[in-house]
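Bench notes, bay 3.
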Amino acid sequence: MKGKIMLALKKLHENLSLVRDQKKTGRVYVYIREKDAINCVWIVVKDGQVFDIIVQKVSNQTQVNNFLTQPIKDIVFVPAQLTESEEPNPYAPSIDSLLKQIESGKSDTITLSTEPTGRLLQLSNQINMIIDKKKLDRSTIRGRIGLKAGILMNITENTPDDPNKIEKLIQAANEVLGEKLQ
């Protein structure tokens, strides 16, 4: 069974890599085998980046935040145009973070979130996406930002928002990364 899971994750990695490298737009359908049914997760992509992650039918087993932990039956990419009115999910993970999660072999222990989070966590995730996009060393850059801001960067969903920390984090990240955080 473990071999089948690894093959499915490898196929998902190959599909996502192709989508990213060729800057494709469409949907990656991830079919998940459940006890009595097949569920489907759509990874909506636009110009090679994750636009949103949608579970076609939410069950007790398959949720958006744990779909990589489920037994994958098949993966299919279907090119499609997104309408101009469609808005990206600002909480969707980057395609690079999905790929790193699959590569790490820890996809069964890490969960994804596409739900609203605290502002500090949003900023932390945005910093990670910029670091990944620029292919920088995450530990080094996050350390520099943390030192400059005077805060610890071990921000989780349980970290309470503090306007002072948010302001310092934005300022430090803008200086270190050379990009404006949103």
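Next record in the batch:
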Amino acid sequence: MKPFEWQEAPAADFAVIGDPVAHSRSPQMHNAAFKALGLDFKYVAVHVPPGEVKAALSHLAELGYQGINVTVPHKEEAIGWCLHVDKFVTEVQAVNTIDLERKAGINTDAGGFLATLPELPTKTALVLGAGGSARALA
């Protein structure tokens, strides 16, 4: 599914924003989950160039979107739009989930990743990368 430019975003409930964002499987995964649960929600991919995140988030909120997932390279820039962020967002300086109505941002990268791992006998790990997800995991 081709992403929409933020100025031309369709009526929907949720979206993932990024640059690039065409590679994201989030719309397929979320829409399949909504259908399986009998929920009448729509999730789309929205392309947002760097420097336009605040305008895009405001526009999507005005259109009635409920929530946004944030991917590269906007996890830092999106913090500036949020009125409320949790302590973890402040620590890692990266937000990946935004409640548009409340203008509240959280970061679920570390918790989501760690939940997939079995109990490991060691506490040492190598994290490669310097983006928002890498900082959240470190």
